[in-house]
Design goal:
- This protein is of the alpha+beta class and about 160 residues long.
- It has one domain: 2-Layer Sandwich (Alpha-Beta Plaits).
- Strands 2-3-1-4-5 form a five-stranded antiparallel β-sheet, covered by helices on one side.
- A hairpin with a 4-residue loop joins β2 and β3.
- The longest helix has 19 residues.
- GO terms for molecular function: cyclic pyranopterin monophosphate synthase activity.
Length: about 160
């Protein structure tokens, strides 16, 4: 099996996508953060010292999507056409599930962008409530689905 990010001399390279056709590409990723009841209640009540946690996490997730090529060495800078975030309250966990959808018309996929957005959003939640609960656990960061491109569609 050939790795696409290595050249003939096994040196790192960014894949050349110039010969690929543009298609609409969408990726959805998700992840969870589990926390104490006290931290969960403070977020729901919007009663934290650092401000509105979930709104800030959504902004951070959007920024994470946009900055993916600055963080992941072989990712192409992309002209994104849309980013959408949803936060699901999980009172029985207690915690939250963050979904990030990234979309573009282009020559390469947006899976890494969606996954990075989820990761940055969840880390932001952690950062904003770590004074209440340092034992929070971020887990299950995963690709839910992708569409477009040569490899076709994927659904978890």
């Amino acid at each position: 099996m050939n790795l696409t990010h290595l050249d003939e001399q096994d040196r790192p390279k960014m894949v050349d996508v110039s010969g690929k056709g543009e298609t609409t590409r969408v990726a959805i990723a998700s992840g969870k953060i589990q926390m104490s009841q006290e931290a969960f209640d403070a977020i729901i009540a919007n009663n934290t010292k650092k401000g509105p946690v979930l709104q800030t996490a959504v902004i951070a997730a959007i920024m994470g999507v946009k900055k993916t090529s600055d963080l992941i060495p072989m990712c192409h800078p992309l002209l994104l056409s849309g980013i959408h975030c949803d936060v699901e309250e999980l009172p029985n966990l207690p915690g939250f599930k963050l979904y990030v959808t990234a979309k573009l018309n282009g020559q390469t996929g947006v899976e890494m962008e969606a996954l990075t957005g989820v990761s940055v959003g969840l880390l932001t939640i952690y950062d904003m409530v770590k004074a209440i609960d340092k034992s929070m656990v971020i887990s299950e960061v995963q690709l839910e689905s992708k569409s477009g491109g040569k490899s076709g569609d994927y659904k978890r």
